[in-house]
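INFO worker-7 received task bundle
INFO bundle size: 2
INFO processing item 0
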Amino acid sequence: MMKTIIAAYSGVLRVSGTKCEWEEAVVGTRIGTGSSILSALQDLSWLSKSKVEKQLQIISVLQWVLTFLVMGVGCTVILMYILCTDCWVIAAVYLVWLVFDWNTPKKGGRRSQWVRNWVIWRYFRDYFPIRLVKTHNLLTNRNYIFGYHPHGIMGLGAFCNFSTEATGVGQKFPGIRPYLATLAGNFRMPILRDYLMSGGICPVNRDSIDYILSKNGSGNAIVIVVGGAAESLNCMPGKNSVTLKNRKGFVKLALRHGADLVPVYSFGENEVYKQVIFEEGSWGRWVQKKFQKYIGFAPCIFHGRGLFSSNTWGLLPYSKPITTVVGEPITVPKVDHPSQKEIDFYHCMYVSSLIRLFDKYKTKFGLPETEVLDIN
């Protein structure tokens, strides 16, 4: 009986052998298809959350770099081109509106909290990353002039901290409206001027600053990058040097308006780009100073990392941490016609306060205890 059953079973296996082989082949095909899909998904590993965020960070920084370098000229050229096409009415209407709106930058601009809170600025912040450190409270019944140091190549820390809400400046200093002051020439460029004003950026000229500090109520903070173009010519990684010794105009403005002075130092601002430094007396430095004198900015030969690799050269800044520390305010009285002695006195107080701020926080942000802030 057992033999019969075994024989019958063997017979089924023989008869069904081809079918079994076919089913095995089908299963093998299915397994192979699943492996191919898994392999394809592994090839798309760059779509992981962290890598997507990194790509968004790169895009957010790149758009600002291009805005800084070419948006003004680019928009002007495009506007002129549109005037020569069938769509000339659009450009003409904008130019008419521009004439009527010409003085808006001098009157506090046209700030947009919506633009300041764009998500793109948070990706911009996280690329480096950028942090804002508060050391003292600021009274809302006073006005302030923040002296920002150092300039760096593009003042990336100044922009992120005071022209966006990415680092929470509005939450850390409630009731204070920061205005980052930059070259007045930027506000002569179509479209760019509106983009800058939306972030609370204003021209760094007397008319604009006088208006904000005298006709715009209290709780205003003008952020002036004191070293300006001259300081940018000497910035390089590992160097902590500010152009301040003979920069006293911002102190005079503070006295005329009774605005408190606040030293601000950005650790890491000089680390994000490398540039060619021309020696004093060289032809390169002569060209830079001529540009600075007649145009208001000094062209720098600099580079960061490439778009696709940190090992290549490009326009993207290196992702180095930038930490901006806002120091203790210096109370300044209102003096309509300050004397040179008064200006020198408060300038000396400001310099001493900036050095103390630097010395207090330098070791917390990666500098050795022996590091000294050079005042030029």
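INFO item 0 finished
INFO processing item 1
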Amino acid sequence: MARRAVVLVKILALALAAVMPLLSGGMDTQQVKLLATKFNVTCVVVFGDSSVDPGNNNNIATPMKGNFLPYGKDFFRGRPTGRFTNGRLATDFIAEALGYTKAIRPFLHKRLRPVDILHGVSFASAASGYDELTANLSNVLPVSKQLEYFREYKMRLRQLVGAGKAENIIRNAVAVLSMGTNDFLQNYFLEPIRPKQYTLEEYQNYLASCMSDDVKTMHSLGITRLVVVGVPALGCMPLVKTLMNQETCVEKYNNFSSSFNTKLNVKLDIARKTLGMKIGYVDAYGIFQDAVNNPKKHGLIETAKGCCGTGTVEYGDTCKGMSTCADASKYVFWDAVHPTERMYEIIAGQAIDSLRKQLLA
């Protein structure tokens, strides 16, 4: 079992926080746009890992990329963008529902337009995490670098619309922070450095403190509305179940996800009180399990395997050039780790509902 666990974390080294699950649901886009106008929502800015990276990693020297087919086969014009799914991410659907853009561009896009600066961009980097070491292990953007790019974004925004209007845009923006999976799968359970320094619980506390510091920095940079996505039920990923030779979710991997989310929420409660920010929390753990355990409720059929290849082990490079299922919209997973565009669309519906209840009330 120990050897199998080591194999699991090695194979999952590229499994980059595959989900940003927020419950299933539909979006009344007209109502959402009215709410955005009423509460003066100006744009969406995104920080995190592969769950919200639309292609920043395409432009940095890292092997952690998804810019090849069949990734993106259902995106506009059937082209891969760097998103680890067949089409769009939840953050793309959220931005569209708010009335801004159908696809959030990565900040490192070589042809970033003024309209992209106005509507918001993503600074997320697949394989990143709350722990700086996690990002450094894969040569991707740690949160500190993502925030550095956010400072650059603010400068470009000021040049575009002036200092006063730029500050107003940032103050009324909605920020999304989605990461944490890689800190466990790609770092703590794979590399020897952190286990020598921390027990698992101590490391969870360390990550929660890192997240808290990130939120404080965001606040100092003018962000007042934030949605934080918890860590999903990692044991329900098809790849994890395959490698552990289980047909049901692997409890061991789900347990540390759940306990970490509890620690995140404690820190977020403190941030709400001390910083005066409006902070929403997305229960990725419970919500994604609900989609897996009750697929018909969400219009889904296949939950045990992904659409790419056999759907049991392929993801990232091993999905490259593979055949895919006939109808990805009936699948929860696109590959053995990451959700389909349909799942992200379902996710976005509840994300908007969470936004409305927790941030725009």
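INFO item 1 finished
INFO post-check item 1: The longest helix spans residues 251-275.
INFO post-check item 1: The chain is about 45% helix and 10% strand.
INFO worker-7 idle
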